[in-house]
Each structure stands twice: as structure tokens, then as C-alpha cells.
């Protein structure tokens, strides 16, 4: 794909240059650090939408959780830390609340922290169903040891998930058929045209919603083509680029123009997450904010690298303007935003229905990451209380949100880089 993207003022080439040479290498380094590689997730939550007890038996779908001694104590001890002292107070508050303690029994400092802490109850801002990481079923997973790649999860089970996502959650009436949908009975050029005239007729927010989901779908499919199981013998297992798989999914001719459209949606998703990261910079710049693992030197170095990356992101010249969304009549905009939020939350719940655990892990992480990006973009607290110039203590992100936000963006950034790799491979073939 080349050229300008719809609904924004940016082009593919500018993103390629910025991502592949400036951002991607540094981001990869950050994501290899202890703070970002360990993600706590509950992969055993039952599917809330249909009864499905079947377990996927594909070898490459398995996820290996961490042994308890693998994860640094600093990460395990609580879900979030600004600093060790602040965190002790939060623990005290949590305990006080569990015990139903009355205010007078708390120290003055704790009372202050309780106030601060309740302000952090920002569930109305959330675009994602929070995973119950306190559940005994939740486990830490080392993301570096469980990479997103080809798993062999495909066919009607995978289609059913994508279908439910698009059909029931992308504001789409049933009469409009998605092009090339393998679960639809008959296909034809006319139907495709109807789909795109429907999409173009939507308000920009609903169109954006569809684009984000399609971008995520495209990104997953780029990854499985780039880390494909090329050879599987008892001697060797080899993963790498599968150009044919990539072409079948994204070639303009083979996909009747759908592939390039989907890749443009991937770039659109990139821009949305990029803008959220640039906007949240002051939150991470707060002097007492730590990427706490318990290793002081490493933690300080990581924070420096994180800020370097965020400053780089801020300097990107063609940021998406989120003010173009939810901008009309106040009441209508509010209702639309609420719809947007509820649909997105639904999608995060559908991830518990994905039969392949590896796909479920990365599906959950990426929807949570995108949900966090949307929370940042549209949070009233952030808008009202975090002017670009100064830090705010009202806006809050949990460790889980931070880890998923950066890892999700890391996935999209890797996809953009992989598109360059595929371009080079295709160039060499021809
Ligand atoms: P699918 O990708 O299943 O798509 C179904 C239909 O949707 C297509 O026929 C097409 O009409 C349409 N479509 C396809 N792409 C787009 C798009 N970008 N925008 C709009 N419409 C589109 N497989 C792995 O190997 N590794 C993984 O990590 C992995 N993670 C997954 C995570 C989730 C949440 C899900 C639901 C699936 C995952 N899969 C993964 C499976 C993978 O996404 C495909 O479903 C599978 O490879 C079968 O591909 P397909 O070509 O039949 O079409």
C-alpha cells in the first residue's frame, strides 16, 4: 500500500520511515525488559456468549505460564506501583477496605492515599472489560517465550469469532454483507459495493471503529504470515516469512482489492495508538512514576528509554486528530461515545471465546492495549486534568494497562516493519 490514508492527514510512507528507522528498534528493546515481558492474564475465563467447552488441541496453541519464581518479586507484589512507599499505602488501603475499617482507624497519610486511590476508580473511562487478575486462575505469562506467530488455528472456529466481531459489534446491519466472508452464502461484486457505500455513509466514529478492528485483524494475519511454520521435522522446527500466505491474504489481485484496504486499516490503527502514546506522555513523566520491578538501576534505565520513545512519538509530524471524533452535538456525541465503548468492551469479552490459547492470549492483550489507547484518547479526566504542560494525579493506568498498551503498539509497529520485509522479499522474487 502507498499514499494517503482515509479520515486523516497522514500517508503510508511517512509512517514507514518514522516507524521502521526511528521507533521500532527502541520499542523492541523496551519490550524485552522485565517490566514489559511479564503479563498477567486469566486465560481460563469461560466464553460469556455461547457454550463451548471444546479445547483446542493444536500444539502451537499452547501457552506456557511462568513458574512462580521466574517473575521478579517487585512485579508480583501488587498490580501497580508509583513508588514503593505509595504502594505500601495502597496495600494498606485495600486491606482496610476489605476489613471494612472506618476512616478514623486509618493514619492520616493512609486517609489521603484512600482519597487518591478512590479517584483512580475510573471504570467509566474503560473501553475494556478488566481481566480478573486477582482470580486464582490468572497467571503470569512471559510474552517473549510465547510469541505471536502461526498456530494453525483456522477454519470455521476462527471464522466464527471474526464473524461475531464484525457482524454484531461493528454497527453493521445484517442485510449488509462483508466482502469475501467465508460464512456468507453468496458473494458478488454488488454486495461488496453495498458494503463500502454503507461504510462511507457511516459517521466517522463508526467507520473508525470498523477500521480499528479490521486493522487489528490485518495485523494478526501479517504476523502469522511473517512467523509461519516453514519446517517441522524431528530434527528442526523453522519459523519464517511465508510469501505465498502473505500474498493470498493481501495481494490486490488475489483478494479483489480487499488486501490493500485492510493494510490501510492497519496503518490507521497505528496512528490511533501512536496518538494515544503521545498524549499520555505527561503521565509517565511524573517524577514519582516508576516502571517498578525492584531493580533500581534497571527500572531507572527503562524509564529513561520509555520517555525517549514517547518524546520521539510526540515529535511525529502528522498525528491523528482525535478531536475530529465525538465532536458534534454534545448529547449525541456522548451517546455515540458510550455506544463505541460498549461495543468495544463486548469485543474484549469475545476474546474469551477464542479456542486457541496462544491466539486468545495475544487477542486479549491487543484488545486491552487498544482499549487503553481509547481510554487515553477520550478520557474526560485526562482532557480536563492533564494539560500538556503539567502532570495530573487523577488519571490512572494499571500495570496491566501499561504493559498491554506498549505491547499492543509493539505488535502493530512490528507489522509495519514486516510489511517492509515482505516488500523486499517480493521485490527479490520478481
Ligand atoms: P480469517 O482471517 O479467518 O478472516 C475471515 C474473513 O474475514 C476472511 O475470509 C475475510 O473475508 C475477512 N477478513 C480477513 N481479514 C480482514 C481484515 N483485516 N479486515 C476485514 N475483514 C477481513 N492464527 C494464527 O496462526 N496465529 C495467531 O496468533 C492468531 N490469532 C488469532 C486471534 C484471534 C482473536 C482470532 C479470532 C484468530 C486468530 N488467528 C490466529 C486465526 C487467523 O486470524 C485466521 O482466522 C486464520 O488464519 C484463518 O484465516 P482465513 O484466511 O480463513 O481468514
TrEMBL record:
<feature type="active site" description="Nucleophile">
    <location>
        <position position="356"/>
    </location>
</feature>
<feature type="binding site">
    <location>
        <position position="162"/>
    </location>
    <ligand>
        <name>FAD</name>
    </ligand>
</feature>
<keyword id="KW-0676">Redox-active center</keyword>
<feature type="active site">
    <location>
        <position position="359"/>
    </location>
</feature>
<dbReference type="GO" id="GO:0019852">
    <property type="term" value="P:L-ascorbic acid metabolic process"/>
</dbReference>
<dbReference type="GO" id="GO:0030968">
    <property type="term" value="P:endoplasmic reticulum unfolded protein response"/>
</dbReference>
<dbReference type="GO" id="GO:0050873">
    <property type="term" value="P:brown fat cell differentiation"/>
</dbReference>
<dbReference type="GO" id="GO:0070059">
    <property type="term" value="P:intrinsic apoptotic signaling pathway in response to endoplasmic reticulum stress"/>
</dbReference>
<dbReference type="GO" id="GO:0006979">
    <property type="term" value="P:response to oxidative stress"/>
</dbReference>
<dbReference type="Pfam" id="PF04137">
    <property type="entry name" value="ERO1"/>
</dbReference>
<keyword id="KW-0472">Membrane</keyword>
<dbReference type="InterPro" id="IPR007266">
    <property type="entry name" value="Ero1"/>
</dbReference>
<feature type="binding site">
    <location>
        <position position="214"/>
    </location>
    <ligand>
        <name>FAD</name>
    </ligand>
</feature>
<dbReference type="GO" id="GO:0015035">
    <property type="term" value="F:protein-disulfide reductase activity"/>
</dbReference>
<dbReference type="GO" id="GO:0005789">
    <property type="term" value="C:endoplasmic reticulum membrane"/>
</dbReference>
<dbReference type="GO" id="GO:0051209">
    <property type="term" value="P:release of sequestered calcium ion into cytosol"/>
</dbReference>
<keyword id="KW-0325">Glycoprotein</keyword>
<feature type="binding site">
    <location>
        <position position="149"/>
    </location>
    <ligand>
        <name>FAD</name>
    </ligand>
</feature>
<dbReference type="GO" id="GO:0007179">
    <property type="term" value="P:transforming growth factor beta receptor signaling pathway"/>
</dbReference>
<comment type="similarity">
    <text>Belongs to the EROs family.</text>
</comment>
<keyword id="KW-0813">Transport</keyword>
<feature type="disulfide bond" description="Redox-active">
    <location>
        <begin position="356"/>
        <end position="359"/>
    </location>
</feature>
<dbReference type="GO" id="GO:0007519">
    <property type="term" value="P:skeletal muscle tissue development"/>
</dbReference>
<dbReference type="GO" id="GO:0030199">
    <property type="term" value="P:collagen fibril organization"/>
</dbReference>
<keyword id="KW-0274">FAD</keyword>
<dbReference type="GO" id="GO:0045454">
    <property type="term" value="P:cell redox homeostasis"/>
</dbReference>
<dbReference type="GO" id="GO:0005615">
    <property type="term" value="C:extracellular space"/>
</dbReference>
<feature type="binding site">
    <location>
        <position position="249"/>
    </location>
    <ligand>
        <name>FAD</name>
    </ligand>
</feature>
<dbReference type="GO" id="GO:0034975">
    <property type="term" value="P:protein folding in endoplasmic reticulum"/>
</dbReference>
<keyword id="KW-0256">Endoplasmic reticulum</keyword>
<dbReference type="InterPro" id="IPR037192">
    <property type="entry name" value="ERO1-like_sf"/>
</dbReference>
<feature type="disulfide bond" description="Redox-active">
    <location>
        <begin position="56"/>
        <end position="61"/>
    </location>
</feature>
<dbReference type="GO" id="GO:0005796">
    <property type="term" value="C:Golgi lumen"/>
</dbReference>
<keyword id="KW-0732">Signal</keyword>
<dbReference type="GO" id="GO:0016972">
    <property type="term" value="F:thiol oxidase activity"/>
</dbReference>
<comment type="subunit">
    <text>Predominantly monomer. May function both as a monomer and a homodimer. Interacts with PDILT. Interacts with ERP44; the interaction results in retention of ERO1A in the endoplasmic reticulum.</text>
</comment>
<keyword id="KW-0560">Oxidoreductase</keyword>
<keyword id="KW-1015">Disulfide bond</keyword>
<feature type="binding site">
    <location>
        <position position="151"/>
    </location>
    <ligand>
        <name>FAD</name>
    </ligand>
</feature>
<feature type="binding site">
    <location>
        <position position="217"/>
    </location>
    <ligand>
        <name>FAD</name>
    </ligand>
</feature>
<protein>
    <recommendedName>
        <fullName>ERO1-like protein alpha</fullName>
    </recommendedName>
</protein>
<keyword id="KW-0285">Flavoprotein</keyword>
Amino acid at each position: 500500500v502507498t499514499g494517503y490514508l482515509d479520515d486523516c492527514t497522514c500517508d503510508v510512507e511517512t509512517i514507514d520511515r518514522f516507524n521502521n528507522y526511528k521507533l521500532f528498534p527502541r520499542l523492541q528493546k523496551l519490550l524485552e525488559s522485565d517490566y514489559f515481558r511479564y503479563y498477567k492474564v486469566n486465560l481460563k475465563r469461560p466464553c460469556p456468549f455461547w457454550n463451548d467447552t471444546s479445547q483446542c488441541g493444536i500444539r502451537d496453541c499452547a501457552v506456557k505460564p511462568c513458574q512462580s519464581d521466574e517473575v521478579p518479586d517487585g512485579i508480583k507484589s501488587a498490580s501497580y506501583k508509583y513508588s514503593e512507599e505509595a504502594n505500601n499505602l495502597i496495600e494498606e488501603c485495600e486491606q482496610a477496605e476489605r476489613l471494612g475499617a472506618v476512616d478514623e482507624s486509618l493514619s492520616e497519610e493512609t486517609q489521603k492515599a484512600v482519597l487518591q486511590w478512590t479517584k483512580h476508580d475510573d471504570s467509566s473511562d474503560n473501553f475494556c472489560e478488566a481481566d480478573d487478575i486477582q482470580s486464582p486462575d490468572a497467571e503470569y505469562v512471559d510474552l517473549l517465550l510465547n510469541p505471536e506467530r502461526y498456530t494453525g488455528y483456522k477454519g470455521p472456529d476462527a471464522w466464527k469469532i471474526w464473524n461475531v466481531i464484525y457482524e454484531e459489534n461493528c454497527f453493521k446491519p445484517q442485510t449488509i454483507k462483508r466482502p469475501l466472508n467465508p460464512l456468507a452464502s453468496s458473494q458478488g461484486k454488488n454486495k461488496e459495493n453495498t458494503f463500502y457505500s454503507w461504510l462511507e455513509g457511516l459517521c466517522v466514529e463508526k467507520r473508525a471503529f470498523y477500521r480499528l478492528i479490521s486493522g487489528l485483524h490485518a495485523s494478526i494475519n501479517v504476523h502469522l504470515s511473517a512467523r509461519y511454520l516453514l519446517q517441522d521435522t524431528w530434527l528442526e522446527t523453522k519459523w519464517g516469512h511465508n510469501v505465498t500466505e502473505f500474498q493470498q491474504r493481501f495481494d490486490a489481485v488475489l483478494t479483489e482489492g480487499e488486501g490493500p484496504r485492510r493494510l490501510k486499516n492497519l496503518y490507521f490503527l497505528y496512528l490511533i495508538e501512536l496518538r494515544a502514546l503521545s498524549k499520555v506522555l505527561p503521565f509517565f513523566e511524573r517524577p514519582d512514576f516508576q516502571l517498578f520491578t525492584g531493580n533500581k538501576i534497571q527500572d531507572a534505565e527503562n524509564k529513561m528509554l520509555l520517555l525517549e520513545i514517547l518524546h520521539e512519538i510526540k515529535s511525529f509530524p502528522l498525528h491523528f486528530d482525535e478531536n475530529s471524533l465525538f465532536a458534534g452535538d454534545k448529547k449525541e456525541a456522548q451517546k455515540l461515545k458510550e455506544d463505541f465503548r460498549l461495543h468495544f468492551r463486548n469485543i474484549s469479552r469475545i476474546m474469551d471465546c477464542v479456542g486457541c490459547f496462544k491466539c486468545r492470549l495475544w487477542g486479549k492483550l491487543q484488545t486491552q492495549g487498544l482499549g487503553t489507547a481509547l481510554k487515553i484518547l477520550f478520557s474526560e479526566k485526562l482532557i480536563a486534568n492533564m494539560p500538556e504542560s503539567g502532570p495530573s494525579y487523577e488519571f490512572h493506568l494499571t500495570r496491566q494497562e501499561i504493559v498491554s498498551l506498549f505491547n499492543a503498539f509493539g505488535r502493530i509497529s512490528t507489522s509495519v516493519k514486516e510489511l517492509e520485509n515482505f516488500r523486499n522479499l517480493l521485490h527479490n522474487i520478481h
